[in-house]
Amino acid sequence: MNSATALPSASRRDFVVQPGGGMQGRIRVPGDKSISHRALLLGAMARGETQVSNFLESQDCLATLNALRVLGVQMDHAPTGHVRIQGAGADGLRVPVRTLDCGNSGTSMRLLSGVLAGQPFAATLDGDDSLRHRPMQRVIEPLTRMGARFDSTAGRAPLTVHGCRPLNSLRYKLPVASAQVKSAILLAGLQATGETWVQEPAVSRDHTERMLQLLGCRLLCDGDWLGVVGGNELHATNITVPGDLSAAAFFLVGAAICPGAAVTVEGVGVNPTRDGVLRLLQRMGAVIHVQFLPQLGAEPAANIEVRGGDLQGIEITPADVPLAIDELPILLVAAALAQGQTRLYGAAELRVKESDRLAAMAAGLHTLGVSVELFTDGMQITGVGQFGGGEIDSCGDHRIAMAFVMAALRATRPVRVRDCRNVDTSFPGFAETARKVGLDLRVTETL
C-alpha cells in the first residue's frame, strides 16, 4: 500500500455559497489533525508496529508522513485512513537524502524539530510561502538550549537542524502557551540526559502527553510543571484517531446560528483541553447535547448535537483562547450574529497562524456588513441580525475559508470565498459534507 501527496494545481479554487440553506442531519468529520500528526511521530519513535486507524488524509498530515519516510521510517499507508508504522525507536532514524517538505503545516515543522534535535545528523525542514512566514524562534530557543543548533532566516524556515546526541536536560517556562512548542520540548526530552521539564502560562491541548502515556512513557508532574526522563523507551500500540473537533466546529456553529437547525456530528474527540468551542457556544446560549462514547485509546469521544436558536454576545478572555484557538474564526461568525457585543482579547497568537486571522476575520465580517473594532490582540464585534453578501478573501487560510462558508447560511446575497485550496490541509471533503447538511455550495476553479 502506498500514498503520495498530489501536486498542487496552479488554479485558484473558490467556494460560492448561495444564501440560506438548511442545517439538518447527522455527519462524521475526518480524523483529528493534531492526534494524527502525533500518532505518526510517536509511532515512528516507538519500538515495534503501531497501527493507526482513522488517520486524517489531509495535506498537513501527509507532509508529516512523507517526512518520516524520508527519515527512513517504514510506513504502509492506505487512503482509507489506516497507517502501519514499523517503529525503530528514537535512534532508528537515518540521514535524509533531501529537504523535508512540511508544506503548510506548522505542526509538522515544530514537532519534527523536537525529534531531529536529538539526532546525530543535520536535516533541513522547509515549507510553502505561508509556512516560511510563520515564527519558529519559539521552538528554536529551547531546543538550542538543549544542545541542538539551527540555521534559519531570522527565526523562520527553511530550518536546518543540527542535532546533538545526547541532548542536555532543560527546565523551561514557555512565554506563550503552545501545545506545539511544549510537544517539541518533550520529544527532545526523550532524547536528553536526565529530566526535561516544561511549564506553560495557561493550559494547552494535551494530546502529546496522553499519547506518550499510551505508549508506555512515564510523565513527571510537579504542580504545573510537566516532565519526561531521557531514554524513556516508547512501545508500539494501536491508535484510533477520533473525529476532529476543530473540523466539527464549523458545522456545530453553523447549526447554532440557524433557528430551527439540528445537526449531530458523530464520533468526535472531546478532550477537555480542546472543548473550549463547546463551552463558549454554551455561554452564548446555544443548545448542545453531548452523548459520550467509549474512550478511543487515550482520548474521550462523543456524539455532539447542536440546535439553532438565539445567541448572546459574550467576553472571550485570554484564559479561553488556548482551549479554542483553532475554533476562534468560526466563533467570531457566531458572535457577529449574536445580540449585543462580543469582545475577544488575549488572542495575539491568531496574528501568526496560516494568515493574520484577526485581520482576515475583521475584513471579511466588514464585507458582510458587521461593525468590527480591531485590536492588537483581539476585536470587538457588534452583532447584526443577518449578513449581507459579497466576496471574501480567505488569505489562503483553511479556517478562514470554512468560517465564511458557514456565514452564508445567514446571508441575504451570495457569498464567494476566494482561495480555498488549502481547505484540504485540514478537511478533505469539506464541500461534500457541507452539501450533505443543506448548504448550496459550488466549487469553481480559475487560472
Summarize the topology:
Layout: E1 12-17, E2 24-28, H1 33-45, E3 47-53, H2 59-70, E4 74-78, E5 82-88, E6 100-101, H3 106-116, E7 122-126, H4 129-132, H5 137-145, E8 149-153, E9 156-162, E10 171-173, H6 179-189, E11 195-199, H7 207-214, E12 220-222, E13 225-229, E14 238-240, H8 245-256, E15 262-269, H9 276-284, E16 287-296, E17 299-307, E18 315-316, H10 328-337, E19 341-344, H11 357-367, E20 371-374, E21 379-382, E22 390-393, H12 398-407, E23 415-418, H13 430-436, E24 441-446
Parallel strand pairs: 2-15, 3-14, 6-7, 10-11, 18-19, 22-23
Antiparallel strand pairs: 1-23, 1-24, 3-5, 4-5, 7-9, 8-9, 11-13, 12-13, 15-17, 16-17, 19-21, 20-21
Helix pairs in contact: 1-2, 1-3, 1-7, 2-3, 3-6, 5-6, 8-10, 8-12, 9-10, 10-11, 10-12
Structural summary, described in words:
By secondary structure, this protein is an alpha/beta fold. The chain has two domains: 12-31 and 242-446, UDP-n-acetylglucosamine1-carboxyvinyl-transferase, Chain (Alpha-beta prism); 33-239, UDP-n-acetylglucosamine1-carboxyvinyl-transferase, Chain (Alpha-beta prism). The chain has 13 helices and 24 strands. Strand 22, helix 12 (398-407) and strand 23 form a beta-alpha-beta unit. Residues 1-9 have low confidence and may be disordered.
